[in-house]
Amino acid sequence: MKILSIDACTETISIALIVGNIITEKNFPSGKNYSGNILQEIKILLNESNLKIENIEGIAFGAGPGSFTGIRVACGIAYGLAYANNLPIIGVNTLEALAFLSQHENSISCIDARMGQVYLGIYQNRNDVITPLVDPGLFNPNELPDQPKIKKAIVIGSGLSSYKEQFKSQYADIELEYFEGKCKLASAIGILSIGQFGNEFNLKNATPIYIRNKVALTEKERLNQQ
After folding, report:
1. pLDDT tens per residue, range 150-189
2. HSE of 82 in the Cβ direction (CA atoms, 13 Å)?
3. How do residues 109-137 score in pLDDT, each as one tens digit?
4. Is the peptide bond before 65 cis (omega within 30 degrees of 0)?
5. What is the pLDDT of residues 199-209, one digit of tens each?
6. The CATH number, out of the four listed (1.10.10.10, 3.30.420.40, 3.90.170.10, 3.40.50.10490), of the domain defined by the range 95-179
7. Domain 2-94+183-206 has CATH 3.30.420.40
């Protein structure tokens, strides 16, 4: 199967092309200077593989949670390409993609949600099947969910740099490892999308995952969180 995948939810924008067992991935720093070039980079990626968008059989994208703007960018580009070419589309949870990327049995996936909060989910990976041990959600760093009954886990994602000490404290009974690097997720998203596509474009599969419904807080609301 030929799959194009796009992610702009975290600190690194990435695109990937999966053709059978061959995966080609490119990544770029996040920000408006790069997000505006994603379509051009997709064209280059396809050309390098001697493909056109009409040859693609499915489009996957990072549906969130993550950067509000990044989710809209990835969803908008994926939607536009899929709708224009009647291609099946699927959104993949970025926290699940982080767990897949870690290649560990147990992962604490975390994305900095800004405004003093973190998106977090705890997952088990068995034979590349990702199962939530703790349902993903938006949390205050000092009110993280209870730890599941696991002995080891890796913490991965952009929330690590901001809230490492809180993870150490809340999950003190788990032997933790830390993935400190930036994560490019397009290839993981593409792989996780396999087997989820329909036969044609379906708008229901293009739904973003925001988790946080309210992006802006008033000054009073910010003070109440402290």
Report:
1. 999 999 999 999 999 999 999 999 999 999 999 999 999 9
2. 30
3. 999 999 999 999 999 999 999 999 999 99
4. yes
5. 899 988 889 99
6. 3.30.420.40
7. yes
